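2024-03-11 09:14:02 DEBUG pipeline.ingest accepted 1 chain
2024-03-11 09:14:02 DEBUG pipeline.ingest length=144
2024-03-11 09:14:03 DEBUG pipeline.predict start
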Amino acid sequence: MRNGWLSSSKRPKLPRSASFAWNVINNALLTICRITYTDPEGIERTWESAERLTRPKGCDIDGVGVAAILQDPTKPTAEPRILLQKQYRPPINQTVIEVPAGLMDPNETAEMCAIRELREETGYVGELFTDKSFAVSPVMFNGK
């Protein structure tokens, strides 16, 4: 690895082709999509993902994830800590550890949503700074 980039020999190969079957399952909250593609070895594969249908009108994003960094003002030389939460998730019937997150409300900015979700889910109130390198994983959702 050089300067944060994988060498060209280590980069994953992209699929040769892909076809999309939208609206496999559709309800008020999301659409389940099935994508069939041919991998670099020529094997046809299928991937299922979800598209949220909850994006407020006129908004570019569905929701936010909050990377809350805690710094104790009484201990300015102490290492900062990251705030995580435990939350029960019915699809896996388990409690998971995750960052505070949530969906946008109508007429709400991403900043307003972040402050609201942090307070609702953890009780903390924070200050915002922007880091556009942090995003929801595209493995399952098409979230922006």
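2024-03-11 09:14:41 DEBUG pipeline.report The first strand starts at residue 17 and ends at 26.
2024-03-11 09:14:41 DEBUG pipeline.predict end
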